[in-house]
Design a protein that fits this description.
Structural class: alpha+beta
Largest sheet: 7 strands, antiparallel
Order of helices and strands: HEEEEHEEHEHH
Shape: globular
Helix content: 40-55%
């Protein structure tokens, strides 16, 4: 096994051992996880780095459709200077304000480091998503997920009855 593969595997195992007991923690796919805190979602991505290292990238998309003004940018930069973990950023595609932090994975990564970083990032993300939307518009990630789920539900409800013929409940309706 390559050293790169070992570092990633050790990191994934430590994250899963540390966070598996939390109902807020979900494994999405190998090396990619989500932690929900209130209205915020923190994405955890384990990435290979250098021959024998791994990175743990934690990113919370706080709000999309944000009008990034000079005033908001300066406020976020000032906050970056005072924060213990993480930093605010802006992704022009989607006009998205993010909050991100990176940990060094591998043998040196421990449970205390994981829980402290995830806890601090998720709590700050949950607080700041509301502040950003209030000040600069846009939608919190929870609002976007709720809207997407509602749209999917309503599209199913608007489906013609004939498209439901293959659904499990259709046999019961046909017999009745």
């Amino acid at each position: 096994m390559s050293k790169e593969g070992t570092a990633v595997k050790v990191t994934v195992a430590r994250i899963e051992e540390t966070l598996a007991g939390s109902p807020a923690f979900t494994r999405v796919e190998p090396c990619f996880y989500v932690v929900r805190q209130g209205t915020a979602y923190v994405y955890i991505h384990v990435l290979p780095w250098e021959p024998d290292r791994a990175l743990v990238r934690l990113v919370a998309q706080l709000a999309r459709g944000v009008e990034m003004t000079p005033d908001l940018a300066i406020k976020l930069l000032r906050l970056n200077a005072r924060l213990r973990f993480g930093a605010f950023g802006y992704v022009a595609q989607g006009a998205c304000v993010v909050f991100a932090h990176t940990l060094l994975g591998g043998e040196t990564l421990d449970a205390a480091e994981i829980t402290t970083a995830v806890r601090d990032l998720s709590m700050l993300a949950d607080d700041f998503d509301d502040m950003i939307v209030e000040e600069a518009g846009g939608k919190r990630m929870q609002d976007l997920i709720d809207a997407s789920a509602a749209a999917a539900l309503f599209s199913e409800l608007d489906a013609p009855v004939s498209s439901l013929a293959g659904s499990p409940g259709s046999r019961a309706r046909d017999k009745g």
